[in-house]
Amino acid sequence: MKNYYRILNVRTNATEAEIKNSYRTLAKRYHPDVNPNNIEAAQRFSDINEAHTVLTDPQARKQYDAQLWEAMNPQRRQTTAQQSSYRAQQTQTQAAQAQAQAQMQAQIRAQIANEVAAQLNGVRDRAYKEGYARGMQDGKTQASQSYAAQTEQAQRAVNEFRRNRGELEQELFDRDRELAQANDRVRTLETQLKWLKSATGDTVRPTEMMRGQIDAAKLRVAELKKQLSAVEQSDIKTNPSQAQATPRRIKELSDALNKEFAALNTRIDELSDRVSNVCEQYNQYKASMQDDGMLSAMERRATAWANKQAEDAQFSKPTHYGTLGLLVWATPAQIDEEFARLENRYQGKTDGESLVRFRRIKDAYAVLADPSRRRAYNATLGIDDARIEEERKLIRENEAIQNDYRGKLAAKEFWTRFDELSSLALAGEADAQNLLGEIYYEGNTIDRNYTQAVYWFREAFRQKHPAAIYNLGLCYTNGQGVGRNKSIGTALFRQATNLGYTPPEQN
After folding, report:
1. In degrees, to the nearest 5, what angle opens at C-alpha 493 toward C-alphas 492 and 498?
2. Cβ(390)–Cβ(375) under 8 Å?
3. Residue 175 has pLDDT above 50, yes or no
4. What are the distances in angstroms from CA 187 to CA 205, 285, 424?
């Protein structure tokens, strides 16, 4: 039998504190971490733990002391064995009692658990019923609020529709009025052209008639010069005074004819410019009238296409495409681009609604970004690849048509404004004349025509329009539409400055 007192190196009557102090010392000395791979030290450490466990338990120590004493006194072994048998029986009895008590406690706990579960079920039922009633009430309240909001929204939509209809009716009225004005201007131009044709007999233009007069003037000048030469050759010997008077008279007449010749040339240029303006405006109005039918057809097609797009959007709304805000015909690049935009929008948001919305967006993108999954999903919608390709082709065609429509509409609006400006310029408005000249000079919206620009700058110049004077100076300085003459250009710049005009580059 092991002597635990000897193992712990203490007396048999040692106190519990002495036993613990000795145990700590010996445990540190023989601990396996301190003595790795030392079997003897490990056995000693086990004995130390066993001795400490027994001697620090008063009941176990008492039994151990009795056993140790009996082992040291053989004559009492029989008595000790009897006592041990009695104690074993007593221990078994206590164990049986403890087991019976444990079973009883388990039954009690089970009964309590059943009662608690019944109470919890009752609480859950009441909570469900109360929650259901509260949810129904909240649902009715929200439904009423939603109905009121939708009713208000619908009323706003009706009001907006009425307002848009009124604006459209006003716009149509304005277009009819502008068309009537355009027809009046066309009739005026046609009258002018008819007068020009009747005046020229449909064979000779007015400019050609005036150039015939100039040619006749030139012949008169040539004849006078021939006469002058004859006088100089015949009379200079017989009558010197007459020879001096005749050339002087001929020179005076020649100067007068040259002056008349210059005036006729100026008149020819002015008349030619006016006829060109009339013809150009007439052609523009004819082209505009021809485009009206095409624009109307394109506008009807644009309306039909907009209705189709609305139907496609309605069809796509309850699908994964609608979750991403796209049509079923969206390209992979459009899907990636829209998901990136939505991801950037919902990234970092922690509220429940945003999280649920973002989860739906990611689920939809996971399906549509995978070609095979997208094809399978499209099949559930009754859509195949051929249908998608056909719709994409229609989209491309209609985008091209819409771009052409917008371009023609913008061109029509520009020519309408241009014709109004031309009418004002012909009526003598100096600002309109200068602006018309700048349009021809810059050549951004129509073909550049320096001759036309100079003509309208001169018309405004006659009314002392500062900007027109400056622009005419530019034409003389650069030799655009008129002979280059920097002196005249500088003088015109000075005159414009004296009238208070500041060049654009100096603003």
Report:
1. 95
2. no
3. no
4. 21, 11, 17
DSSP string, 371-382: HHHHHHHHHHTT
Give pLDDT, residue 157: 64
Q: How many CB atoms lie within 10 A of CB 26?
A: 20
Q: Dump pLDDT digits (tens) for 344-357.
A: 988 888 888 889 98
Show the CA angle centred on residue 398, arms to residues 393 and 399, nearest 5°.
Answer: 100
Single-letter amino acid, residue 378: N
Contacts of 501 (CB under 8 A, 6+ apart): 466, 467, 469, 470
Higher pLDDT, 249 or 116: 116
* DSSP-H helix ranges across 427-449: 430-442
CB contact at 8 A, 425 and 432: yes
Distance CA 316, CA 324 (A): 10
Say if residues 408 and 291 touch (Cβ distance below 8 Å): yes
Kindly state the percentage of the chain with pLDDT values over 70: 65
Q: What's the distance, CA 441 to chain centroid? A: 37
**Measured between alpha carbons, how far is 45 from 32 in angstroms, rounded to an integer?**
8
- Cα–Cα dist 95/282, whole Å: 124
352-393 pLDDT per residue, tens: 888 998 999 999 999 999 999 999 999 998 889 898 898 889
Question: First CA to last CA across the chain, in angstroms?
Answer: 119
Q: Could you tell me if 50 and 23 are in contact, meaning their C-beta atoms sit under 8 angstroms apart?
A: no
Give which of 300, 286, 302, 297 is closest to 415, Cα–Cα.
286
How many Å apart are CA 486 and CA 482, to the nearest integer? 11
The Cβ of residue 9 has, within 10 Å, a number of other Cβ atoms equal to 13
Count of Cβ atoms closer than 10 Å to residue 178 Cβ: 13
Residue 460's contacts (CB-CB under 8 Å, 6 or more residues apart) are: 430, 431, 433, 434, 437, 467, 468
Q: Rounded to two decimals, what is the model's pTM? A: 0.28
Residue with tokens 């002015």: 270
3-state SS, 444-479, equals CCCCCCHHHHHHHHHHHHCCCCHHHHHHHHHHHHHC
